[in-house]
Amino acid sequence: MEVVDARVILAPTVSFLCAALVFATGRSVFWRRFWTFLAATIKMGLVLSMLPGTLRGVVYTYQFVEFTPGIGIGFRADAYGMFFSLVSSTLWVLTTIYAIGYMQGDKDRVRFFGFFALCVSTTVGVSFAENLLTFFLFYETLTICTYPLVVHAETPEALRAGRIYLTYTLIGGGFALVGAIMTLNVAGTLTLAHPGILSGDAGFGTLLVIFLCLIIGFGVKAGIMPLHGWLPIAMVAPTPVSALLHAVAVVKVGAFGVTRVIYNVFGVELLQQLGFATPLAWLAAFTILAGSTIALTQDHLKRRLAYSTISQLSYIVLGAALLTPLAATAAIIHVANQAFAKITMFFVVGAITKTTGKKYVSELDGIGARMPWSMAAFTIAALSFVGVPLFAGFITKWYLALGALQADAWWFVLVMIVSSLLNAGYWFPIIHRAYFRTAQEPWPPPPPGRRLETHKTLLIPILICAAYVLLLGVTAEVPGMPFSVAQVAVERAFGLPGVTP
Amino acid sequence: MTGDAVAGAAFTAASWWPFAAVALPLVGVAVGAIGEHAPGRWKGVTLLALGAATFAVTLAVVPGVLAGRTYEVFVLRMTTQLWLTLRIDAVGAAYAATVAGLGLLALVYSFGYLPRGPRRARYFAILMACLACTLGVAYAGNLLTFLIFYEAFSVLTYALVVHEQTPAALAAGVKYIAYILVGGSLVLAGVLLSFFLAGDLTFAAGGMLPADAPTGQLLAAFWCFVAGFGVKAALVPLHGWVPDAHPAAPAPFSAVLSGVMVAAGAFGILRVVFDVFGVALVRELGAAPWLAGVAALTVLFGAVMALSQDDLKRRLAYSTISQMGYLTLAIALLGAGATAGALVHLVHHAFMKGTLFFCAGLWIHGTGHRRLSQLRGVGARMPLTTAAFTLAAFGMIGMPPLSGFVSKWWLGVGMLEVDAPLALVVLLAGALLAAAYLLPVVYLAYFAPPLPTPLAGAGVATAASGPAPATAWGAGGRRAEAAASMLVPTLVAAALTLVLGLGSLLPGFPLELARAATRAWFGGG
Questions:
Q1: Are A499 and B76 in contact (CB < 8 Å)?
Q2: Beta carbons of A389 and B144 less than 8 Å apart
């Protein structure tokens, strides 16, 4: 049931306004923080207010402007879009708190928080995009808005990283544009409202080119190998940027794009006929394993996290490419599971660097004694990635494996298992060092007057995210939790009535 | 039973029992974790009370189980497919009582054994957590609950294996965690396949997998389970972690490892064979003879390796590998009598091996030596400890009327019932080998003259690795038994070797529970 509702367009535009206000009044610390925080909380509030409707099957739409029939700027909040915006808006609030604490004393904070707020709005725009044009518009704007955040430090290293980032993402954008234009040509429309707008009439060759262009286009941001090269290099950005953008917003927007292509541009049935999804599934499996293998070799903490992200994102791509409802459930729910767990880890790594100056795994001996709560949160996130039951990652692992069995592709179960073991291989040594080794030189204690192990604006988001990782694992079924939204989305994508098993 | 049905089942008074058994030790985790800053007395007393209460709970449910009552509680639902339940049946009750009992003894022993220090709080917290998780394994009502508790205590055990943080302990820990994670992955693969084939995860006596499922997938699930659980159960060639991990851990935890943790793997195989597949399906698949072969190999290999070990704890570790092989061998024979014997052996072995490890710990604590060649004549200095060791050793060898004899008897009878003379040969060979690797220790302790010079330096355990020796080992005939906190659990465990043997036919003792379990699985007497 489709309902016209202004909230769908309010969500991105309000944050745009707040971003503008940050630029205008940002000299004052109070106003900068105020508008930044307001942007994040208003967005979260608007999205949450639409949640009950989404769970009942309501889809909120708002057509902004139509250039010609089928081409315009339009917004549509279906279950999948709602899911994505829920995850990103919740995490945005938490990252805002974290960033405020982390960036204290840093330079150019007006520019930082201004573009930060802009990124909020563009991400919502992507998640609520009604058609490929809107999607593309906000997708590219996100790229541009993230550039100043990546090069924030303005060191030669940062500028080089920014150049590489832009090169990859703009070329990817080019491919996506070509794919979109061809789709318009073939299907006559760009809307994402149906389970597939292309049909087999277009001819195998044309459809293949469209598929490749769109997947490459979105696959750059989704970190599918070999298009992943920008991700580890972009880790030079300040940790709040790495946490949110490169663990949640930018990369998830890429994964979101890939899944939209599979479910809403091509559709499950057409892809099953054409057989395009199988090579994609294999590529995803390769990325999963290769990303984790490379992560094993990284001593730099943020780089280890970056390669882990590359690996984890392909869980989503694999789930979508398997074309079964259970795998789709896994793909969608992993957007949330991986986001919360990976952000927890980035927050902890940032807190460690801020508090002790350490950036490498080999320097972390005994840190469990100095920062017990942070390392406990890190342990929770690590256990989630390994897929230990009662943590979020197990839900993904379970449904993805069952989805593979449902698709008669049991070898992907093996991929999942090996991936879990690899994850254990590069997370457990960190935990082991933290708790079971004694520090080479004693850790500097907190400054006098501070009882907490690190600043509270860093610690509180860490603890909240870690707690949510537990909640996602244990209470996934509670109505209102992401899982129920994911189920609605899966039903839509597969045209299934009622509740998925 | 679907998740909805389980969730809808009324929460009766009886539901509290399994819940309490798991929850009480978890309270102990919090108590144990409160660090050194808290006054020691009340913490120790509270932990003791919790341990005793847990044991009491596991015993209290036994009469009800024997009378046919069900204790079931729905814990948590994660998604429509994944929920946790606890359920007490006969075999679970037997295993749980063993875990809680040996755990209580190890807890008391730990008070005396562990040196004061920052890691002590961590040890007790994790010990209680391990106990809670093992009880969760015993009382698990479906494969997922089993998996969760199994994985949890597997991971937690790591912290206790490496507790002393010596290079040897850390190396043992790495080996342990690598083996156990691979094993856990295999178990998960089995669980996934089972759900895929059956649509459900709940244990059902007689099996819950559909008999008409593709044989290839059934066999894949079976061997995934066996290999996965076989790592923990130390089936050859998956046993590699045992000889390093059991000696590396502090003695009370070695006792728990050998007594109940390895048994958890065998318990898993038991659940898979009887409550997931069912006897008929396993027979049809034809996998049982292979499993029996692996188990027989394990029995003999472990026993032979034990002969050549000079390190006492390593010798005992190989003995565990061998003895636990009996369980899998008996299960693989698919006979009611043999399975009953296996269950009884699980219980009896736990306390016998526990006694042996407790004594080993006392000897190490008292003399600073771990190698047999250096433990000569210790019987004169520590007569009670050595007597306990002797009693348990004779029990392991199978001397009547001790518990080891009883379990081997029923195993043997069961093996004859299903016409498996080869298995009987393996049983007897194992017993002979047990004599060969245990009696020399007794002989050395009593009849060999102690080493001439007091060894103040070489061979004495350094302060960094394990407890400081309570007394100096030197010439002179002074008796030097360990403190009561360690001696009493050792003597109690040794006494149990006698009591469980003498009273084996009495109601409430393991044999009755074992028979109740096999009745459910095989039907009839």
A1: no
A2: yes
